[in-house]
Amino acid sequence: MSTRKIIPTAVYAEMTPNPAVMKFVADRWLIADGLQVEFSSKEQCKDAAPLAEELFNFPFVTAVFISGNYVAVTKDDSLGWEMIVQQLREYIREWLLENEIAVNHVPEGLEADMPKVEAGALGLTEAQKAFIEKEDISPSEFDDEIRFLLDEFVRPAVEQDGGAIDFTAYKEGKVYVQLRGACSGCPSSMQTLKGGIENLLKSKIPAVEEVIAQGV
Length: 216
Known about the structure:
Elements: E1 11-15, E2 21-26, E3 36-39, H1 50-55, E4 61-67, E5 70-75, H2 81-98, H3 126-135, H4 143-160, E6 163-171, E7 174-181, H5 189-204, E8 210-213
């Protein structure tokens, strides 16, 4: 007689500023502390993130972002959240009751921990690497300070809303960042980018003239 190992887990759903994204928060870690990963297809998460792979079986799911103790799910316009949120929350909870780890490993090119400016460095997505190489961007004297300001003052609030912001590069007064999770495609993201993040960086680093969402 086989017995299933049950891992007590509670999950609740939380709205984000992006109406297409719902955040499902667990009472335990789903991915190694400090790591974040976003998938836009079932193929990307095959053998790497079993929970994300399962979620893509729902026809309305278009993206899955996993960070810390939550998973942020992006849906299409076919159904409203009021019709599917309870079903999805219960599905995630049931899956976590029987599975301890939601992410086995972060596939190459989708890493998002401790971003660095050098093209090819661990932490940059393929889109960021391609952008840096295309624009021929080299590390600058402002990179560390920009990264510190984003991590200290911006990242906690962004993650609270189910998203992430990653520093890509600085060049000629322009700071390039990549928005992921609930922040990607959010109607209010550009307002936050310009009204909040840009003002913060410009006030602390006079050389900064503009913040641009690269790849959005």
